[in-house]
Amino acid sequence: MLRTRYTELNLLIGGEWVSGGDREHIAVINPATEEVLGQLPLATKADLDRALAAARDAYPAWRAMPPHERGRILKRAADLLRERVDHISQIATQEEGKTLAESRVELGMAAEIFEWYAEEGRRAYGRVLPQRASGVRMTVLKEPVGPVAGFAPWNFPLGNPARKIGAPLAAGCTCILKPAEETPGSALEVARALLDAGLPKGVLSVVFGAPAMVSEHLISSPIIRAVHFTGSIPVGKQLTKLAAEGMKRTTMELGGHGPVLVFDDVDVEQVLDLSVAAKFRNAGQVCVSPTRFYVHQAVYGKFVEGFAKRTRALKVGDGLVEGMQMGPLAHPRRLEAMASLLADARQHGAKFHTGGERMPGKGYFWQPTVLSDIPESARIMNEEPFGPVALINSFSSFEEAISRANRLPYGLAAYAFSRASRTVNLLGEQLEAGMIGINSYQISVPESPFGGIKESGHGSEEGTEGLETCLVTKFVNAS
Prior knowledge:
The structure is a single chain. This protein is α/β, with parallel strands linked by helices and 479 residues long. 38% of the residues lie in helices and 20% in strands. The protein has 14 helices and 20 strands. It has helices at 45-64, 67-83, 85-96, 100-120, 159-171, 184-196, 211-220, 233-245, 268-279, 300-312, 332-347, 398-405, 421-430, 463-468; strands at 11-13, 16-18, 25-29, 36-41, 127-129, 137-144, 148-151, 175-178, 204-206, 226-230, 249-253, 258-262, 290-296, 351-354, 369-372, 389-395, 413-417, 435-438, 457-458, 471-478. It has a seven-stranded mixed beta sheet with strand order 14-15-16-13-12-17-18, sandwiched between helices. A six-stranded mixed beta sheet has the order 9-8-7-10-11-19, sandwiched between helices. Strands 5-6-20 form a three-stranded antiparallel beta sheet, with no helix packed on it. α2 (67-83) packs antiparallel against α5, α4 (100-120) packs parallel to α5 (159-171) and α7 (211-220) packs parallel to α8. The longest helix has 21 residues, at 100-120.
């Protein structure tokens, strides 16, 4: 088993690492062993005020820095992340639980986001409008929105911080990042790479604390001009209300309940191989995780049997151990949620093919679980499970499949598998989601927009759309 020293936990305020004093601390737990990794200092209101002042004071110089110079810092940070891949990926696995292979991929994603925005920041184009009179110049300018508050969850402790700060930094905004208290070390290592790459003091602060207090304090400040949040729908709605008080721009990437439509013209074995790997990635703790599988009745039995067989063969254990395919859930709250949802599914008559219980021993491990014939009245068919459970039901017609896929108020990610070109075209038109994978589960690359519709949020991170959320439009008529 590989083991790196866990990172020192601090706050980052105005370019300085801060800890100690009379601040409260909470323990950071390794979910695979339940061992304490470190003690995390929580920000006071005075700390938050200093972070706000630093973001305000650093903003004019950072905004004025030419985009290609900001890009050099982001590119250098990407290089440093890659150079430190062994150390940082082990930190991420220790505090979040996912396998080391997944942490390595995630670190590569974070580096790519910085790298891509390093270039895209140079393309925040305005335009010149046709003249209406001689000597009159009408221009449209794109300018940074101002200091941004970013709130990142624990499930992708390296990728989510990069998403929250990559576009704002490239656009010329300063940032205050509040990562999850469960996974602080990963975010601090991302911040360290930026500082080591030459990021000026005050451009980025990283704070931790009671989520309600921190979010309310930051969002209510007139210094913050935009809010980027990934998390649950109820919390996203609350933060949107707070931001509305100051007419602040919001980007909300909220919950999902990803449907997967499998038609009868596919190679079932190939779809199964892709689906099981995608479903149990990060123990299903993925907002775009494929969850509700609707399978054509002609291949339904074969699909259920094949899914259960592959699931039983998964190797579950500490993500630092070579060969593990799934790690633990990130914290005890997920164990409680899984137990409650699956107990309700049993009461509703769902068929359990494998799994369904917590695994014995230390760690927050849950058996990879496969259910079929689940009534749509069961809670798990309506509430995002965010865990290692696949829900499989059958359908008989295209119209039925679309109706059931679009039934919920979620609209983050959806997937489908078919070889028929007309079916593929109709799926792209009729599935209600911000991101759709057809014959693929790959729906996130730095150059593509990442975001949902309906109650899954609004706005996008990544892509040119992500940069646009960090820019305001100004019209200038000069005569």
